[in-house]
Amino acid sequence: MTDTEEPSPPDHRPVAIVGAGSIGAGFAIVHAAAGRSVVLCDAQPQAIEDATRRIDETLADLATFGLVDETPAAVAARIGASSDLSAAVRDASFIHECVPEDLELKKSVTREIDELAPADSVIASASSAIPASDYAADVPGRARCLVSHPGNPPFLLRVVELVPAPFTDQRFTDAARDFLSAANLATVVVQREIRGFVFNRLQGALLREAYCLVRDGVVAVEEIDAIVRGGLGIRWSVVGPFETVDLNTRGGIERHAELLGPAYEAMGAERGQHDPWTDELVSAVTRQRRALLPLAQWHDRVRWRDRELMRLLACKGKDRQ
């Protein structure tokens, strides 16, 4: 395959998922629950058997909590399996490559998919840190290759970041965004290719500090988990880090940076990281926040946040730890 074609409407064609690990099985659930036919492909029969069992268990649990609109059997019936890559991708409109995080493996699998799949299908890798420029640069149909990195598990953490390479054709980025959004996934297009993307860079920043705090004897593993589980995690499930500090400080995010920016700069310096929040950067962030939430609406949004946290805690019941 040498030339890509215009992406075509995918509704009547199956989704192919190459790799039957936890992410592959999770994406199978997402698409089948959205009414799509899915072919789950893995060269190892045991991997397919394990994934099938995991899918059935997960669908039963989702039904218990009212998180699927159909019976588990009806959703599972849309998921087929194959150990033959050619058969799995030959009619697919959208292909999720979900093989392990190994550069050489991703290179060979992507090239093989490109040779076998229709010229108008999207090839999206669930890579956690390897950008498409590393694994698809030499693929003839590289213009339709990009990263689609999900939260894990994708049927619960319903966000996916799309990371096109400089060579990815915008048509295929748009097609991937529309296709995944239609499966009820919050789809974020990352504007510049960067190793680790956004999800894992944010997660990695917290993990690096957590490891350092344990190493330095400041706090134990379980105590860090308790702080995140009962504090940061609860809060971030309602508002993200920028909105958190915007709502935590009267006067908004600009006032927060004025009050606490020097303290955060000093904390970073302790770890050998010098990334101060410059006036220019704070102004840029402030402009974006004020476009989303004028200060005149600050009090109402604070109350909304508190009520959402109350709703969440009520769902958790007495077991809030």
Model description:
The chain is of the alpha/beta class. The chain folds into two domains: 175 residues, NAD(P)-binding Rossmann-like Domain (Rossmann fold, 3-Layer(aba) Sandwich), CATH 3.40.50.720; 117 residues, Orthogonal Bundle (N-(1-d-carboxylethyl)-l-norvaline Dehydrogenase, domain 2), CATH 1.10.1040.10. It contains 13 helices and eight strands. The longest helix is centred in the first third of the chain and has 20 residues.
SSE diagram, text form:
Blueprint: E1 15-18, H1 22-33, E2 38-41, H2 45-64, H3 72-76, E3 79-82, H4 85-89, E4 94-97, H5 103-116, E5 122-125, H6 132-135, E6 145-150, E7 159-164, H7 170-181, E8 186-189, H8 199-215, H9 221-236, H10 241-248, H11 253-270, H12 279-292, H13 298-316
Parallel strand pairs: 1-2, 1-4, 2-3, 4-5, 5-6, 7-8
Antiparallel strand pairs: 6-7
Helix pairs in contact: 1-2, 10-11
Based on the model shown, name its key terms.
321 residues; alpha/beta; Rossmann fold; N-(1-d-carboxylethyl)-l-norvaline Dehydrogenase, domain 2; 13 helices; globular
